[in-house]
Fold this protein.
Amino acid sequence: MDVTQTFSRSRVLVRSWPFFIDLIIAAAGLACFSAVLMVAHTWFGAAHPTADIRLAPGALPLYAIYSVVRMFIAYLLSLGFALTYGYIAAYNRRAEAFMIAILDILQSIPVLCFLPPVMLAMVALFPTRQLGLEMGAILLIFTGQVWNMAFSFYSSLKSLPVELKQAAEIYNFSAWQRFWQMELPYSSIGLVWNSMVSVAGGWFALVTCEMFPLQNTDVRLPGLGSYLQTSANLGDTSATLWGLGTLLFIIILTDQLVWRPLIAWTERFKVESVESQRPASSRILGMLQQSRALHALREHTVLPWKEKLYCAMARRHNARAQAPENPTKSRTRLAAFIFAMMILAAVIIYFASHALLLLRSLHGREVLVLMGDSAATFLRVNVALLLAALWTIPAGVAIGFHPRLARIAQPIAQIAASVPAPAFYPILLLILIRMGGGIGTGSILLMLLGTQWYILFNVIAGAMAIPTDLKEVANLFQFRNWQRWKMVILPGIFPFLITGMVTASGGAWNASIIAEYFHFRGQVLSTTGLGARINAATDSGQFSVILVATILISLMVVTVNRLVWRPLYRLAETRFRLDS
């Protein structure tokens, strides 16, 4: 074969490559549509709260589809909530302190505290349909995903560079334009990395919410979480390995098809004046950019629609800015706000009064025991937080500063973070028992497994967001290692680090439920702590104990938030921000 024939054949392959990409995208779209139809048919059917979980490997594809759909819907809800809540908290000074305190409390309350009321409410809304149980499971996964995303978006908005705000004012951006063209792009790096650790937290919650006792019913939903729990309870090692293998396959596939393209795509939104020499890349993103169908869809549908929308919003924004303020409208808005607050206060008083009725069954001695348990868990949470910070900060900086290392370490970290920590716990307990340890030490290690990823992924995002020109300056002036950390690295990652520490604290409180109370080889292993108390109360239906435990967690979180995290957040948004 001569050179001319080889060259012509290679040109044919290059020209036909986008066609094959379009076929792959179309096939993927049809597969997703078919999966949605199949899941919808099951969800809108009759309720089956105690599904028979088959441990045969052939059942895993269907279980995987059910779990992935739950995770995907929960992630969409989490993303929408994070953007809305974070935006309001960042720009509404009156509500900011209250909203962040509420967010801090909610992200620290373990999933099991949400489980009974959420599930009972959803089953009451859809008593004859499977949809009630599914919606309850999705909302519980939502509680395991959403908080660190909201913290990340809020922190990014608070540290927005002044020059970007000034550019938006000069070009007279509307609120919608400012959000899509400035605020969301600037926040995208931290949001993507926090989304990865959120999905990892969602897998942790999935194991809990697909199989649990509720009143007199042992609820079992078909999915990977219930499959793993059933195989672990029966001691079926083969089925457990099949389940973990399927979970790892989904995690790797998600990393290659979703997270790595998003990481490469967000490189364009770094605030820097010198381009990075080795930016992150993705073959999948390159393939999508070569797709003719996606390009035509963008050129003929998305861009014209977006242009018309932006023009209409700009005209409305200009008209609103030039029009004199109507005092009647201001009074109407104030009246509507006061009315909404009165309704909210009435709802809070109603539910608070019912909650207080539950406390009448508790004695003072039981409350004192719960306070001692809370102190033990608080100590374990902070020890786990310290141990996690010791290794994740240098490791995260190394990964964020070296794209080659990131391409290797990021998928490994994503896989390790996404594998539910309870899957490691039996092995961890066996090792500790043989070494003479027990569940007291094991609970700290399990909290570490549920905590460290929040810090690691936030530090990686912070290191990647440091502008290349700052790194070049450090190289130009030949900074020593300690000078580089003091002048560039720590100030650059500080806002991300605080977000990671706050959300890691919540992750440790969530992990305490399983860490301090565990079913192992037909017996229950427990240690002194609030997590063990909540778990035991959930098994026995003692809602008053769960309520008091939730109140104690809230009080401790609010105290730490006031004394530690709020001052550090103010320091991050005033001193450590990228301003010129």
In short: Residues 58-281+364-574 form a domain with the MetI-like fold fold (CATH 1.10.3720.10). The CA atoms of residues 228 and 241 lie 9 Å apart.
